[in-house]
User: What shape does this take?
Amino acid sequence: MRKGFELLKTKKEAEIINIEALEKEHNLEIPPLYKVFVNSFSTEENSISYEMFYHPTFKDERYISYFTFSLKPEIDFSGFNSVENSILFSKDIEGKDDIDYLTIGHCSIGGILVGLKGDDVEKVFYYDPRWC
Assistant: This one.
């Protein structure tokens, strides 16, 4: 069974993104660790190598990318957003150009965010629009 970084598809050198140009274009600073991640691994559609596993508690098969962070609600992580889409989604969610979070992944409901400013820099959060 694949686990950890084995689930992610690596990028080819030709796919490397000029993140500095995006930062300048959108007037933001992307955390260094996330820059390394997006230039190492694919964040496009079907970027995760899905495998199935048997969940002993629920007695059914699930994708290995299905993570339960708590019993209620369950969070179904579906994949990553490209850097460009992350910026656009964040601007839409926050309703402003000077964003505080980057929407790096999507779930069946909501998304995964990484902090861009202050004490939240490089911290990862789950965004559920039902809670707002």
